[in-house]
């Protein structure tokens, strides 16, 4: 259409210009939202110490909070290691190895605007360790104290320096501290002052309940809105202290979706942009429709943990080694698990600082396995009966029943007769602490509980040190190997990080050489996302940095 | 009527106490540690003992039950172990969502069931009856979680008409009866409605057929009463039994469906129960079961009273 009237044309141009100008800021400021379907059935706890294991830490820990030390999540290729967080440096006292001095990062503020300082560190240590502290919260103790088993107390030296004391010399402390998230004492106090309750304990509980709904940490994401069991909305913290990690997305919405097919449907229908652990049988369709799949080796092990009590068939190292050589892990990976696992050749794989140089090579070699079993006195006409306690489901258990049935068939070819004792997941988990001698083991001589391997205590010490036998910790099979005990002591008391890593590598290599476990698989933390999601780096970790993610 | 109602209410009291005792004992006699949600397997013995004392699990079972019952009578069901939030608030919020779903499903299921049942009963042994009855059989036979997934695949994934999961749009903190929220209700409500629809259809069909074959109906027709009038009598005679069946079905729906609510991530009591079971969250589990059982008991009581109001013979019996 040709507009001949100049006045009309001028008016239209002016109108269009005005319209564009008015619309421009709105377009420029369009909010970017990342919607994530979690596997959790509820929003992990938001008050600073999440529940639901490392998925909790991933979504409501590392997003809203920081710890004194953190994980380097910037690379998909190298193992994730500990880096400075709210502490810039730390050092153990030369004279007393139970005392550590942590220098705090200056200029950091909580989401409520109050400063992060030594008082805040002491307050957060005492929320889980000092029973007579007003902020002490029993519900946060279990998920925190066990992850830093030797931390005893904290003391302010000056505003930016804090002294931490451990019960015994423990070089693992900086790694353990990645689990202690710093919540705002001022915000909590505000709720405490307003709380109603019969006594200080009731007021404290009410304050934590209120804090969970309106939390304040120092992390890259701030709580915007929280609807229990439905959604948690986080917005970016534009003033985050690490400018490189200020989120690129304006808002992140976390949705609990425990059912894998529901998560996958939500992604396929565009209701979410990202799902954790999509339904395995939907992977081809997701790929075909252009969705992106991410997976990487996680510090996680799917094992059989052997009983080493008197009379256990696993006391013979030839039998332990035979089991490790008789499993075609590649077949398990490519067949049953559709590629979603990494074959395990130990707790840590080559390239990890704690791997070491084991001489026993865990691989598939059926002939060698059969030979070892024959040397141990077994054969086609004399099979060795072993009984494994496992579950039908469970956190980190991957696909326990089909995987165990696969092992049952594989080991049958090496003269094993595998019996499975399948029980409910929480019961299996509870029995894990009771040990192979307990009636709850039901005569099993191996247990199948997966474990996280981010921290030396969790990955090695609690299984290999004789003092960690039940009821103390998770040495379910009562391993009693003086060499392991020596190496644990050496690692714990070596404070130079490189030397400590070398000692841990020595311990790990010794455990592989002893075939301490049947090492089967590492999970890969599969996730699927819309092609609109960019900038994702999936590290070799249970965690992921959401700050790096952009939305097209 | 008042005396009958009072008598029914008195009968309910021992039932409620028994329900409380059973649900308390059930969750306590199952194997596994009640603190598994907050007590990692590698926790020290001191820590385990400290937490057991903090949560009161170190006390004898009768003492725990007594304390729990006393608190429950005062409206305090304790706090969830996993979340730390008050159980009563958690349960009531979830029950609210389940009630929303149950009402929607009841409207769909009962309306369809009554209509199909009346049609099938009126046209007994005809092809119309066979079609209506086929719907009813399909309703009670098809696994509803499977139907739910099928509906999601068709209407969410393929057609993109309705959301696949959830109970409201982002930014919403509570339920509202607007399209933004209602669209989340459509698929779970249809899925939930199929079983009651099937059961109500079969019940109403049987009742209609039975009443239509009775002598008094013949007499009414002989007197020249038109079919609408006859039908009014049929409905009045069928109502007490149909109402009882619908009341029971509503009770089941108010209990929430773990499978349906999990498939749709619908944050109702079934979803809550699922979460409480998997996390072994005893206070939450006990509280949820108790509230749901109370709902069921109260609903049965209301149905009994309603039946007695409609049919005086019940009162006399």
TrEMBL record, chain A:
<keyword id="KW-0732">Signal</keyword>
<dbReference type="GO" id="GO:0043190">
    <property type="term" value="C:ATP-binding cassette (ABC) transporter complex"/>
</dbReference>
<dbReference type="Pfam" id="PF00496">
    <property type="entry name" value="SBP_bac_5"/>
</dbReference>
<dbReference type="GO" id="GO:0015833">
    <property type="term" value="P:peptide transport"/>
</dbReference>
<feature type="domain" description="Solute-binding protein family 5">
    <location>
        <begin position="81"/>
        <end position="446"/>
    </location>
</feature>
<dbReference type="GO" id="GO:1904680">
    <property type="term" value="F:peptide transmembrane transporter activity"/>
</dbReference>
<dbReference type="InterPro" id="IPR039424">
    <property type="entry name" value="SBP_5"/>
</dbReference>
<dbReference type="InterPro" id="IPR030678">
    <property type="entry name" value="Peptide/Ni-bd"/>
</dbReference>
<dbReference type="InterPro" id="IPR000914">
    <property type="entry name" value="SBP_5_dom"/>
</dbReference>
<protein>
    <submittedName>
        <fullName>ABC transporter substrate-binding protein</fullName>
    </submittedName>
</protein>
<dbReference type="GO" id="GO:0030288">
    <property type="term" value="C:outer membrane-bounded periplasmic space"/>
</dbReference>
<comment type="similarity">
    <text>Belongs to the bacterial solute-binding protein 5 family.</text>
</comment>
<feature type="signal peptide">
    <location>
        <begin position="1"/>
        <end position="29"/>
    </location>
</feature>
From TrEMBL, chain B:
<feature type="transmembrane region" description="Helical">
    <location>
        <begin position="284"/>
        <end position="306"/>
    </location>
</feature>
<protein>
    <submittedName>
        <fullName>ABC transporter permease</fullName>
    </submittedName>
</protein>
<comment type="similarity">
    <text>Belongs to the binding-protein-dependent transport system permease family.</text>
</comment>
<dbReference type="GO" id="GO:0005886">
    <property type="term" value="C:plasma membrane"/>
</dbReference>
<dbReference type="InterPro" id="IPR035906">
    <property type="entry name" value="MetI-like_sf"/>
</dbReference>
<feature type="transmembrane region" description="Helical">
    <location>
        <begin position="181"/>
        <end position="200"/>
    </location>
</feature>
<dbReference type="Pfam" id="PF00528">
    <property type="entry name" value="BPD_transp_1"/>
</dbReference>
<dbReference type="InterPro" id="IPR000515">
    <property type="entry name" value="MetI-like"/>
</dbReference>
<feature type="transmembrane region" description="Helical">
    <location>
        <begin position="242"/>
        <end position="264"/>
    </location>
</feature>
<keyword id="KW-1133">Transmembrane helix</keyword>
<feature type="transmembrane region" description="Helical">
    <location>
        <begin position="9"/>
        <end position="29"/>
    </location>
</feature>
<feature type="transmembrane region" description="Helical">
    <location>
        <begin position="101"/>
        <end position="123"/>
    </location>
</feature>
<dbReference type="GO" id="GO:0071916">
    <property type="term" value="F:dipeptide transmembrane transporter activity"/>
</dbReference>
<dbReference type="InterPro" id="IPR045621">
    <property type="entry name" value="BPD_transp_1_N"/>
</dbReference>
<keyword id="KW-1003">Cell membrane</keyword>
<keyword id="KW-0472">Membrane</keyword>
<keyword id="KW-0813">Transport</keyword>
<keyword id="KW-0812">Transmembrane</keyword>
<dbReference type="Pfam" id="PF19300">
    <property type="entry name" value="BPD_transp_1_N"/>
</dbReference>
<feature type="domain" description="ABC transmembrane type-1">
    <location>
        <begin position="95"/>
        <end position="303"/>
    </location>
</feature>
<feature type="transmembrane region" description="Helical">
    <location>
        <begin position="135"/>
        <end position="161"/>
    </location>
</feature>
């Amino acid at each position: 259409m040709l507009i001949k009237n100049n006045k009309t044309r001028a008016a239209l141009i002016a109108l269009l210009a005005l319209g564009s100008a008015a619309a421009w800021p709105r377009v420029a400021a369009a909010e970017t939202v990342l919607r994530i379907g979690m596997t959790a059935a509820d929003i992990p706890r938001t008050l600073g110490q999440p529940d639901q294991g490392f998925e909790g830490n991933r979504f409501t820990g590392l997003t809203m909070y920081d710890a004194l030390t953190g994980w380097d999540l910037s690379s998909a290729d190298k193992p994730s290691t500990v880096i400075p967080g709210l502490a810039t440096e730390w050092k153990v006292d030369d004279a007393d190895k139970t005392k550590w001095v942590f220098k705090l990062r200056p200029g950091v503020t909580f989401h409520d605007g109050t400063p992060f300082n030594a008082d805040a560190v002491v307050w957060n240590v005492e929320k889980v360790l000092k029973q007579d502290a007003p902020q002490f919260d029993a519900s946060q103790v279990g998920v925190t104290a066990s992850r830093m088993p030797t931390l005893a107390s904290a003391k302010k030296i000056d505003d930016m320096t804090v002294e931490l004391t451990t019960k015994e010399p423990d070089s693992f402390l900086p790694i353990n501290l990645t689990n202690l998230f710093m919540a705002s004492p001022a915000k909590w106090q505000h709720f405490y002052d307003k709380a109603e309750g019969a006594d200080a304990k009731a007021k404290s509980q009410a304050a934590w309940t209120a804090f969970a709904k309106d939390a304040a940490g120092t992390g890259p994401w701030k709580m915007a809105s929280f609807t229990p069991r439905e959604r948690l909305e986080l917005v970016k913290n534009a003033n985050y202290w690490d400018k490189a990690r200020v989120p690129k997305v304006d808002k992140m919405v976390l949705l609990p979706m425990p059912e894998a097919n529901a998560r996958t449907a939500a992604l396929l229908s565009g209701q979410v942009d990202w799902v954790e652990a999509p339904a395995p049988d939907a992977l081809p369709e997701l790929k075909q429709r252009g969705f992106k799949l991410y997976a990487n080796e996680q510090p996680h092990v799917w094992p059989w943990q052997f009983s080493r009590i008197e009379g256990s068939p696993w006391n013979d190292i030839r039998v332990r080694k035979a089991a490790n050589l008789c499993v075609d892990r590649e077949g398990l990976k490519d067949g049953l698990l559709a590629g979603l696992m990494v074959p395990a050749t130990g707790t840590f794989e080559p390239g990890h600082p704690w791997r070491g140089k084991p001489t026993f090579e865990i691989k598939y070699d059926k002939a060698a396995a059969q030979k070892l079993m024959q040397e141990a006195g077994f054969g086609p006409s004399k099979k060795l009966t072993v009984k494994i306690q496992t579950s039908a489901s469970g956190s980190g258990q991957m696909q326990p029943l089909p995987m165990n049935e696969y092992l049952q068939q594989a080991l049958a070819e090496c003269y094993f007769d595998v019996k499975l004792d399948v029980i409910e997941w929480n019961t299996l988990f509870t029995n894990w602490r009771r040990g192979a001698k307990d009636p709850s083991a039901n005569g099993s001589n191996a247990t199948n509980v997966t474990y996280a391997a981010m921290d030396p205590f969790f990955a090695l010490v609690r299984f290999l040190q004789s003092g960690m036998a039940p009821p103390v910790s998770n040495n379910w099979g009562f391993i009693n190997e003086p060499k392991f005990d020596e190496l644990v002591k050496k690692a714990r008391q070596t404070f130079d990080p490189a030397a400590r890593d070398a000692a841990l590598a020595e311990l790990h290599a010794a455990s592989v050489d002893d075939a301490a476990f049947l090492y089967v698989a590492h999970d890969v933390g599969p996730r699927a996302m819309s092609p609109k999601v960019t900038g994702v780096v999936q590290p070799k970790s249970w965690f992921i940095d959401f700050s790096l993610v952009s939305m097209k | 009527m008042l005396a009958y109602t009072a008598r029914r209410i008195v009968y309910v009291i021992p039932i409620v106490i028994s329900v409380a005792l059973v649900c308390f004992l059930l969750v306590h006699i199952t194997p596994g540690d009640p603190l598994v949600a907050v007590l990692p397997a590698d926790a020290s013995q001191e820590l385990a003992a400290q937490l057991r004392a903090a949560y009161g699990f170190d006390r004898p079972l009768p003492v725990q039950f007594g304390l729990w019952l006393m608190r429950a009578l005062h409206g305090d069901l304790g706090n969830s172990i996993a979340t730390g939030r008050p159980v009563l608030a958690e349960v009531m919020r979830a029950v609210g969502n389940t009630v929303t779903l149950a009402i929607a499903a009841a409207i769909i299921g009962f309306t369809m069931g009554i209509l199909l049942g009346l049609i099938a009963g009126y046209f007994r042994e005809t092809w119309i009856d066979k079609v209506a009855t086929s719907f009813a059989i399909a309703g009670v036979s098809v696994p509803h979680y499977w139907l739910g997934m099928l509906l999601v695949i068709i209407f969410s994934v393929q057609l993109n008409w309705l959301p696949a999961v959830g109970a409201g749009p982002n930014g919403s903190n509570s339920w509202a009866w607007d399209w933004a929220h209602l669209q989340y209700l459509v698929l779970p409500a249809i899925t939930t409605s199929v079983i009651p629809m099937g059961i109500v259809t079969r019940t109403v069909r049987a009742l209609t057929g039975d009443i239509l074959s009775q002598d008094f109906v013949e007499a009414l027709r002989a007197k020249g009463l038109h079919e609408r009038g006859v039908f009014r009598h049929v409905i009045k005679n069928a109502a007490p039994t149909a109402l009882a069946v619908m009341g029971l079905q509503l009770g089941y729906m108010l209990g929430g469906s773990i499978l349906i609510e999990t498939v749709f991530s619908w944050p109702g009591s079934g979803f809550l129960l699922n979460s409480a079971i998997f996390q072994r969250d005893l206070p939450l589990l006990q509280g949820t079961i108790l509230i749901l059982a109370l709902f069921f008991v109260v609903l049965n009581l209301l149905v009994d009273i309603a039946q007695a109001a409609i049919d005086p013979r019940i009162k006399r019996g």
